[in-house]
Amino acid sequence: MRLAAHGLEFHAQGRAIVADVSLQVQPGETLALIGPNGSGKSTLLRLLAGLQPRGRGQVLLNDRPLQRMTRREIARCLAVVEQQAETSDSLTAWQVVQLGRTPWLSALSPFGPADADIIDESLAALGMAGMAERRWQTLSGGERQRVQIARALAQRPQILLLDEPTNHLDIHHQLALSRLIARLPLTVVMAVHDLNHAMTCDRLAVMSAGRLVACGPPRDVLTPDRLREIFRVNATLLTDPADGAALLRFHCLEEK
Amino acid sequence: MTGATIPALLRRLAARAALGALLLILAIFAGVVIGETPLSPALIGQVLAHKLGHMPLPADPIDAGIIWNYRLPRTLVAAACGAGLALSGLVLQTLVRNALADPYLPGVSAGASTGAVAVTILGVGAGSIGISAGAFVGAALAFALVAALARAAGGGSAQLVLAGIAGSQLFNALTSFFIAKSANAEQARGIMFWLLGNLSGVRWPDVGLALPVALVGLLICLWHVRAMDAFSFGAGAAAALGVPVRRVVAVLIGAVTLMTATMVSLVGAIGFVGLVIPHAMRFLVGARHAGLVPCTALAGAVFLIAADIASRMMIPGQVVPIGVVTALVGAPGFALILIRNRRLA
Predict the structure, then answer these.
(1) Domain check: are A84 and A148 in the same one?
(2) Same domain as A28, residue A10
(3) Is the ipTM of this complex over 0.95?
(4) Residues of B in contact with A112 (CB under 8 A)
(5) pLDDT tens digit string along B160-210?
(6) Cα–Cα dist B166/B186, whole Å
(7) Would an 8 Å CB–CB cutoff place A37 in contact with chain B?
(8) I want to staple A21 with a disulfide (CB 3.0 to 4.6 A). Which of A8, A124, B75, B227 is the partner?
(9) What is the pTM of this model?
(10) Residue B217 DSSP SS3
């Protein structure tokens, strides 16, 4: 599913958190949103999902404006995983993932065995099958993150919006999640802090002070000048002799 | 949890519904049988057969009158109020995501008492409206004010809690002001008694109001069980899961206001049912609303019938206000829940 946005804006306390952002994401493409803290990545993701109150601009899903769709229609196309998810309810991991089936269920199409299978598959895809009966409150930060991503997969969306999905994850699960996302036939937009992780995505969008300052393939976007200007680091591009993959090594600007 | 077929699910559902109905009927039966004048279960059968089946009445007409005109309507209203208040508490706790939310959070009970005082002491309506109508109008007004304030403050759940505190304080102060200014000792005592909850004046017309309101409230809640589940991670998460949050909140809060204002106007502000029963049910049946909503309604109904029986039997020859009984049982119950909660965490 194609995702397009025109003139997205959000102001809070007279300050532009996101200012005039337009972008297009092709079906199946993975776009990484990068930028320093407070550059507007999370707000942009919420604007793309139509979840930011008082947001302005237009979002199109396959040329259909978000404003003309019901929340249920949107939730069937597009799933969001925010950075924080907290509940005081005593729910098991399985029950949290079950919430992902909400947009597909109604009085006429109640929860059935097919839904249960989707939940089991989603948990298994995140390596959480063995923890289905664990209570949310007993899960670690990384496990909660994986349960929320499994919940998003259980929505069976065509577009996935992820806010720092590898946050809290150990290195094994970071790599496993990157591989899973790369394999999924979904359109993905995710906010990422790890620039080496961003290097593996199809395209990068660089946010700075609420504006989209660059968008394109990783090698074109992550130039030494831009890294210095926006991220305030010096970087050396290294090559892994094993497979020729590019790798960034960073140095503090002040030290050099 | 997985792989159950639809007919099996329906069978299980029917079995549970039958069990719930049986419990409720037993509780109503107990509410009618137990009282200061002991009445035999056989007599109840005769009275019901007489009233509903036009059979001849072999029993004493005074005993029959106690059953039909006094205990049966009282027990039915207790059941409806218990169910309505417990459901209201559950819905507010879910939507506001605050464990301390109860049906009186949006200022409803405070507004009801102000309305009741305005009618009885200040003579608003010049005798044309009763204490219940006054209480209902007061409750609705207070809620409208609190909702408007919460909206003006930003519209979040924290804003509703704070606006509810402001509204409750304002209306409680108004009530005290009116009592201090105009009431004689007898009136003040009457108001106090009414505020603590009182089922002794209940007759059949009250049943005609309380039962349909409780049933409509229950149906609205049952229709929204999945949407309420989606609120587990907050309103934003519910919206992301496809729930039309504004509409669902408006419908559910509307149902809560209708139920609470009706129940308070009929029997006074009975506390603790709406706060404690939903928590107790979460421990017993889990956090999913498909089970929680019917169980909370049932438990609220049974609990308030039991509290009504206790209020009649606790001191011989005297009726203890039912709000005192619910709090006497509810406060230790709540303490237990808090302690258990800590152990689980």
Answers:
(1) yes
(2) yes
(3) no
(4) 6
(5) 888 999 999 999 899 888 888 877 778 777 777 777 787 888 888 889 999
(6) 30
(7) no
(8) A8
(9) 0.88
(10) helix
Helix (H, G, I), strand (E, B) or coil at A36: coil
| Assigned token pair, B321 | 């206000």
The residue range of the domain holding A242 is 223-255
Longest CA pairwise span in chain A (Å): 66
**Total number of domains constituting chain A:** 2
Same domain, A153 and A240: no
Instruction: Give all domains of chain B, ordered by start, each with its CATH number.
Output: 22-342 (1.10.3470.10)
Pairwise CA distance, residues A251 & A225, whole Å: 14
Both A241 and A196 in one domain: the answer is: no
Q: Provide the 10 A C-beta neighbour count for residue B174.
A: 18
Give the pair of three-digit tokens for residue B300.
């609220």
Residues A24 and A118 both lie in one domain: yes
Interface of A with B in 79-108 (CB under 8 A): 79-80, 82, 85-91, 94-96, 99-100, 102-103, 105, 107
Whether residue A24 sits in one domain with residue A66: yes
A125, A147 Cβ separation under 8 angstroms: no
Average pLDDT, stretch A64-73? 93
Q: Are A145 and A156 in contact (CB under 8 A)?
A: no
DSSP reduced 3-state for A147: helix
